[in-house]
């Protein structure tokens, strides 16, 4: 028996794989050709639902090596013991484009890290930007709809984008990054990553610290010019995916410094900006970066679909000692991300190898799509048969909250302009000129009343910001 013998998915040997079973040489195909039926039926199901955002991506395996013990700040074992190494998988992506879109589109880039810790999966699901367009998850679907295809025409329309932004100045900080040179990173190796949200650490004394995660590229920052990005979109739309894969194959393993900004819990109450507002950054003067380790990618997936496409990230994957915060966008994502994975991959998506914890899993969930054999005990708790039980030692310290339940206006009294203006003034004059030209070019077919409203917002960030755009659109 040949070791290379072709079989069906059920392991049955296939006698013929070139010609269908027919009634006579010219007759119709018979439904009893089970090999043909299986091939066609599986082919129809080869594609799982596309991610609504972050559909196009690339990824690789690697390690995180801790260089600074953080046990004073967290009970998380992944952050304890200098030299400790933790395996990981990192997925990069564009955000708004579909599965077949170009890697070089002007768009934020997803930067999602899955750490396989001894206490379970820890996911840091961020972008290559420290902020985002929205601060309230109630607006996230609306924002994404404004960036996607027009439901009437089927093509993208900048009028919809700028109409939304005219009414959403909270996006100005992220917009300034998006339209700057960093809106077109040269592949995935030459950009920083950010957890973006505010998370928490807590130690054995019950002290809580608010933190932000930063991943600083040791390859440096490289960006594409708009002309080069447009050229690559036509000649090599998988440019960033190819660059990452081939660099790792050449053993040019990309690395990032892992850093934290750390804020004692009490200081959040009096800080100059809301530290849980995703449209804001913390000053590095107030909370300087603390380097805690190095992250390296050193192994390509053996199969793109198996690992990259099925990789499922969620900020709700948090290990003891690392927690969430009152960040409203984070709170929304704690539900939305695992819910999206259950829709795409099934209720047992965490049994897929790339998503599976390395440590022992013990729970009372069973059955459903992709289900694997149970744990050898009944599926309820409390019980009298010695099943797994809760562990109070990993309880998070209580979070003090106050106030009435209401739909509070997070825009009221909020300064949406200062940080965007400060970023604009940090850019070199030639980059400001490029950025305002790019913004103006996207507005050329947009109605003047929408353009004027957006220019008012840019002018509030910095008068020169609005003036340059106004001149370039002929206002």
UniProtKB/TrEMBL annotation:
One family name in Pfam for this protein: Catalase
CDD domains in alphabetical order: catalase_clade_3
InterPro entries reported in the protein's UniProt record: Catalase, Catalase_3, Catalase_AS, Catalase_clade1/3, Catalase_core, Catalase_haem_BS, Catalase_immune_responsive, Catalase_sf
Superkingdom of this protein's organism: Bacteria
Presence of keyword Iron: yes
Enzyme Commission number: 1.11.1.6
Active site per database record: 54, 127
Residue numbers spanned by region Disordered: 1-27, 365-394
Enzymatic reactions: 2 H2O2 = O2 + 2 H2O
Keywords: Heme, Hydrogen peroxide, Iron, Metal-binding, Oxidoreductase, Peroxidase
GO biological process: hydrogen peroxide catabolic process; response to hydrogen peroxide
Record SMART domains: Catalase (SM01060)
An annotated GO cellular component: cytoplasm
Domain Catalase core residue range list: 7-389
Similarity section: Belongs to the catalase family.
The protein, known as: Catalase
Organism: Leptospira ognonensis
